[in-house]
Specification:
4 strands; mainly beta; 4-stranded antiparallel beta sheet
Length: about 60
């Protein structure tokens, strides 16, 4: 797997395919996840915390 770091101070889009992407606004605000016809978004300055808290941690691998 390759690694790429982007620091553009404007936000970043990760395009997986035509109908799949993750978009993160400046400083981790306004996060959008799209998978086909399904879209989930978290608005505001605390969007990153909202996303993290929405994940079912019993189904995810965690590192402490």
């Amino acid at each position: 797997m390759s690694k790429q770091i982007v620091h553009n101070n404007e936000g970043t889009d990760l395009i997986i395919s035509d109908n799949q992407y993750i978009s993160v606004g400046k400083d981790g605000s306004n996060i959008v996840l799209k998978n086909g016809d399904h879209m989930i978004w978290f608005d505001g300055d605390n969007a990153w915390e909202q996303l993290f808290n929405a994940i079912d941690k019993t189904k995810a691998s965690l590192s402490t």
